[in-house]
Amino acid sequence: MSIAELFTTFPYIRTERLFLRQIVSEDAEDLYRYYTNPLVTKHLDWLGPSSIEDSMALINGWHQAFHARKLLPWGISYGPTAQSEILGTIMIMPTRGNFEDTPLFPLSVGYELKAEHWNKGIMSEALQAVLDFTRTHVGARRIQAEVYPENAASLRLLKKLGFQEEGLLRQYMMHEVTKKLLDVIMLALLC
């Protein structure tokens, strides 16, 4: 499958328990609700959408970025329809440019999961499926993640899936709301 074919229709992924699907407008309320949990946003560089309307705008932005071939945004659910609750999201994107650039720039991965679904192996299963998909269909040579040093669960997950810690990037990003400069640990998986 070429990159052009990959972006003609949204690429769904099935795992043993999960269905990774396109996030649609019917998911706006669910997304808004789970981003309001401070446990979910604690390790993000923003606080999530501030309303259901902002969730709709966020979803529309993800759709535009997908069509521009700059983002692959999956919603994690137990079923393939919009009636299936979104448990979380996983997104991969080139660090620069889009998926058609050759050679492909390194990809960044980001994810979050509703707190009530933590410690059930859901994110491990979903992220492994996305990594497998990316190796097979995108041809990435490097996938990286930026994690706050205090986010021990995310660091464990990435290392379990083969990511290696490359170092601490001091004052690497700024929180969108607090404007505080944040340190992150860079982890990478070479494909």
Automatic annotation (TrEMBL):
It comes from Paenibacillus roseopurpureus. Residues 18-191 form the N-acetyltransferase domain. It holds the Pfam family Acetyltransf_3. Gene3D superfamilies: 3.40.630.30. It comes from the Bacteria. This is GNAT family N-acetyltransferase. One of its GO terms (cellular component) is cytoplasm. One of its GO terms (molecular function) is protein-N-terminal-alanine acetyltransferase activity.
